[in-house]
Design goal:
Length: 166
């Protein structure tokens, strides 16, 4: 896995649907994505964006792990959504405010969810401990672009980072 690039982004809003993830069972994520597909959430989300990628992430869809308050706690709300501008009609959806942050952006290549899981393992077990940085108080994000899920898929894992407290 290659080293991430570091980028700064201003605050932005994400609207979508959320569920509560209860610990390390990664199958919960897949079941929630399947449920959102079955309930046609993605048609509603695309109507919000007009099929345009998000201004801050370039994503067509986001998976947002809402660990803002306590990055060490691995029970959290998980939101599938899209970036939305102020004033967007988000009735019936949940909105999460992503704070301005510096992000370590890991490029993932290959089938999802395996490529995202591998990026997260690399980020937390190897890169972050060696980086001299700490997890910032912002969500972790899966950034998905348009396209099929296959061996050539490219997506990103965004890890919020900051200088550690002294």
């Amino acid at each position: 896995m290659e080293a991430p690039r570091l980028i700064d982004r201003p605050a932005f809003r994400v609207a979508g649907r959320k569920t509560y993830i209860t610990g390390p069972d990664n199958a919960q994520f897949g079941r929630f994505w399947d449920q959102c597909r079955a309930e046609d959430l993605f048609t509603r989300l695309q109507s919000l964006t007009g099929f345009h990628p998000g201004a801050q992430t370039g994503a067509s869809t986001l998976g947002v792990s809402c660990v803002d308050a306590n990055p060490d706690k691995r029970d959290f709300d998980y939101l599938i959504g899209v970036e939305v501008p102020e004033g967007a009609d988000v009735e019936g959806l949940e909105v999460h405010q992503v704070p301005a942050a510096r992000w370590a952006v890991f490029t993932c290549r290959g089938r999802v969810p395996d490529s995202i899981v591998q990026a997260e393992i690399f980020a937390f077990s190897r890169w972050l401990p060696a980086s001299g940085l700490a997890h910032a108080f912002a969500p972790e994000m899966e950034v998905y672009f348009d396209g099929e899920n296959n061996d050539e898929t490219i997506c990103e894992f965004w890890l919020p980072v900051m200088q550690p407290a002294s």
